[in-house]
Amino acid sequence: MDSFVEYVVELLEKLGTVQVRRMFGGWGVYSGGRMFGLIAAGQLYLKTDDVTRPDFKAQGGQPFIYESGTRQVELGYWTPPPDASDDAYAILPWARRAVDAANRAALKKQAVKKKAPARKGPAKEAAAKEAAAPKRPAPGWSAPAKKRATAKKRATAKKRATARKQAPAEKRAAAKKMPSTPAKRGARTPPRRPGRLTRS
Questions:
Q1: Residue 48, C-beta contacts closer than 8 angstroms, at least 6 positions apart
Q2: Domain for residue 41, yes or no?
Q3: Which range of residues forms the domain containing residue 25?
Q4: Alpha carbon separation from 115 to 8, 9, 121, 125, 176 (Å, rounded)
Q5: What is the pTM of this model?
């Protein structure tokens, strides 16, 4: 670890547990797992946002700027005021401002993630549509023999039940069509005449 990095860790001891990690040719300074400081080219920079940046600027802080191709990029890290750079007590309120800015940035990211709806990839969308679509049998497909036999039995039983229901109705209709000749009361059947005998 660089001697200046060790010095910064000692300078920020009053803030609490501070960790450093190497990154991009410099060092990141962390508290509670969130990066609130940056060490680059022998200089400490503290994280700012719209709330704290005006204070750093008013007290003579300078932004961390790096060149990317033909343009300069500002990352939002500023140096503490000159009179606080080497004093553990003087730098403490500025370090706390940097930790607060890091916490606000983390909360903002979490809120954005919650609001953003989860997007389904093309493969998931296709699978969902296929599952929702009604399934049709493939060409040339036929039901198993057992299922066909069961269906045939059900159809036969249904026909028999229908025939049984129709039979009494047909008999009643036939009975109505047949002529009826009721016998009169007191009527006598005429006697049967014997046939004539022929002599041989």
A1: 56, 76, 77, 78, 97, 98, 101
A2: yes
A3: 3-110
A4: 38, 37, 18, 21, 81
A5: 0.57
